[in-house]
Specification:
homodimer; alpha+beta; Arc Repressor Mutant, subunit A; 2 domains; five-stranded antiparallel sheet; 41% helix; globular; DNA-binding
Chain lengths: 241, 241
DNA sequence: CGACACCTTGAAGAGGTTCAAGAAATGTGG
DNA sequence: CCACATTTCTTGAACCTCTTCAAGGTGTCG
């Protein structure tokens, strides 16, 4: 076995328990067979490892199987911004298509495993399987809508609103994956949350403390228990124009 | 003529002077013919008119022919955020694909004309013409990268940096379209610029005044002449981590 | 020409940042 | 498995940027 972090055996979507999340495509038997062959390999990453980095030639999309990733954009003058957190069933790498190279870094925030989806193969198959074509378009459109909602958050919300929205979004996504609606373990640091939300880490920390003081949640380091989700909803929806 | 704002006569990309901007696709004669048939109609809009609005069923993308648009996301509690400004040759409407309905409003900021690109037709043709498929993917990927760069701007830049970046981006896009690199007429209000940049209109106004004081540009209402573009570059690239 | 929308500028105030110090958790090497 | 180094988190105080509120000016359109 030349490289223990790659496996090409029995790599197939057909019997993957994440299929409903990452490839929810209605199709006939033949088509499903094509789709099952989308994946070229799986790959394991250690915490802190880069899945891809900006400037790197683009050739694959990646589906997260296990673990947790962040994507980070870096500007020419060294600023950087976390643009997303990605968990099981989500697809990363779409940024690379336009210039045939990645425009951000994708970093594993804990030990992780991903499926490699060669873009060329995906494009080929989606020409033959309309349902896959639709799915790919929707993936990209969803990313656009999500990013525009982040622009709304970053452009118009105050610190506590941002953090509340962030937490609600996280638990909602975790809930879809069968985890608790109220309890979660943050996979990222205060600084990473801050970068994502356009805040400094101290501000994030203070907001956590404030929410805890107000009895909205319990916070012990990265362990968070949401006691009053409606309070969070109210915070997010309170203000506005 | 039932509706003077729609025309379906001689609507064809083949001899459109904007083709290089909006459909720069390499293909053989047959394929180009397919692509030329992408457009179903053209439509004229008056200043202030909506091209589409959030919640509206999605069925078309739109290519801007003339005029200038903004797209605006509105949150449930009435906040809104300008997510983009769009000029000749640019495609809008990609947000609508994921949920079969638009998630933002597109508003003409001046009298405008657009080409209607039925999404179903586009999807069909791009299954037969790989170059079009690639083009569509790149369009969407470009939008993702652009939005993520806006997240960087909103999350990490100060007011003067944001405005400088905005102006440089604007003149650069206008320059590609054959207009001056230094002179421009803003099509949007201070408030709209502010919404886009996550600032209040007063802040935008103050920053314009500051740039004018510093001799970087002349500002007379919406007429802007950039005297020292390098100063703007320096402002954008100054800080960082 | 008048009404309305848009822009500018000042002064006061708030929210978030910066700087700093210490505490808690995590990981590492012996 | 423990001790130590490192990273991460919390909290306080001073500061700064941007916002808010207010008033007046400028431009535009019917």
């Amino acid at each position: 076995m030349p490289c223990p972090n790659f496996s090409t055996l029995k790599v197939n979507c057909s019997n993957c328990n994440l299929r409903d999340l990452c490839m929810p495509v209605e199709a006939d038997i033949d088509e499903l067979e094509s789709i099952a062959g989308l994946i070229s390999a799986r790959r394991k990453l250690k915490r802190g490892e880069l899945l891809y980095s900006h400037g790197e030639p683009f050739s694959n999309l990646y589906a997260v199987r296990t673990g947790f990733f962040k994507t980070v954009v870096t500007s020419s003058d060294g600023r950087d911004q976390v643009t997303g957190f990605h968990m099981a069933g989500e697809i990363v790498g779409l940024d690379g298509i336009v210039d045939d190279q990645h425009s951000c870094d994708a970093v594993a925030l804990e030990d992780a495993e991903i499926c490699v989806l060669p873009y060329a193969r995906m494009a080929d198959i989606s020409r033959k399987v309309p349902a896959l074509q639709t799915h790919v378009h929707k993936l990209m459109s969803r990313e656009i809508v999500r990013d525009q909602n982040m622009m709304l958050l970053l452009g118009s919300m105050r610190a506590e609103e941002r953090l509340a929205a962030f937490l609600l979004n996280l638990v909602q996504r975790l809930h879809v994956r069968g985890l608790s609606q109220s309890e979660l373990v943050l996979r990222m640091t205060r600084e990473e949350i801050g970068s994502y939300l356009g805040l400094k880490l101290e501000t994030v920390s203070r907001m956590f403390s404030r929410f805890a003081d107000e009895g909205i949640m319990e916070v012990r380091q990265r362990h968070v228990r949401i006691i009053d989700p409606e309070a969070l909803e109210r915070i997010v929806n309170q203000s506005g124009a």
